[in-house]
Design a protein that fits this description.
about 200 residues, alpha+beta, Bifunctional nuclease domain, 2 domains, eight-stranded mixed beta sheet, 7 helices, about 40% helix, about 30% strand
Length: about 200
């Protein structure tokens, strides 16, 4: 199996290209690669609730999974974003009971929501990061720089929701940089996918 790279949740941003979608932004622990994954509203809510340590009035689906684990004496040991096929991410929930390890296939959003409830680490592979991540430069993390460029970046990048086929690779890369500067990770993911499709 390929070497696993530990990643962490950096944030959730609301989708601007598609109503009801969110970009879950993951980042490698000791690096500058960022992995945006587009998820639905309910999955984003399940992740946000656990990050903010909010207790809902009634258990959500992912809380139910945690209760099952507690009552039937199995635990989750890690979350592994294992594959990327045609722009779709796949994950595994690694469980253990009495020394037996079981891998359960899952969507990354569900796996991460469950992993948060068990307090376990998230991993992926270098290959997935190389293929799907965007790299943040030092200047991109400077707040003053972001404030100056985010408005322009969003306005320019927002014009690219459609007709990506008509743009050159250079233009796509330029717009990708603008989307990153504007912290529009959903659009950045769409531009990245278009560039990957052409390679």
């Amino acid at each position: 199996m390929a070497d696993k790279i530990k990643i962490e949740i950096l944030g959730l941003s609301t989708g601007q290209a598609q109503s009801g979608s969110f970009a879950l932004v993951l980042g490698e622990m000791d690096g500058r690669r960022r992995l945006p994954i587009i998820i639905g509203m309910f999955e984003a809510q399940a992740i946000a609730i656990e990050i903010e340590k909010i207790t809902p009035n009634r258990p959500m689906t992912h809380d139910l999974f945690k209760s099952f684990g507690d009552h039937f004496s199995f635990t989750v040991t890690e979350i592994f974003i294992s594959e990327l096929k045609e722009g779709v991410f796949f994950a595994k929930i690694i469980c253990e009971k009495e020394g037996n390890v079981i891998e359960i296939d899952s969507r990354p959003s569900d796996a991460i929501a469950i992993g948060l409830r068990f307090g376990v680490a998230i991993y992926t592979t270098d290959q997935i990061l190389n293929e799907a991540a965007v790299v943040i430069n030092e200047e991109d993390e400077d707040l003053e720089y972001l404030e100056k460029t985010s408005k322009l970046g969003h306005e320019e990048a927002s014009k690219t929701t459609n007709n990506l086929d008509d743009l050159t690779a250079d233009k796509l890369n330029e717009l990708l940089e603008m989307a990153l500067e504007a912290e529009d990770y959903e659009r950045a993911a769409a531009l990245r996918d278009e560039l990957n499709r052409r390679n």
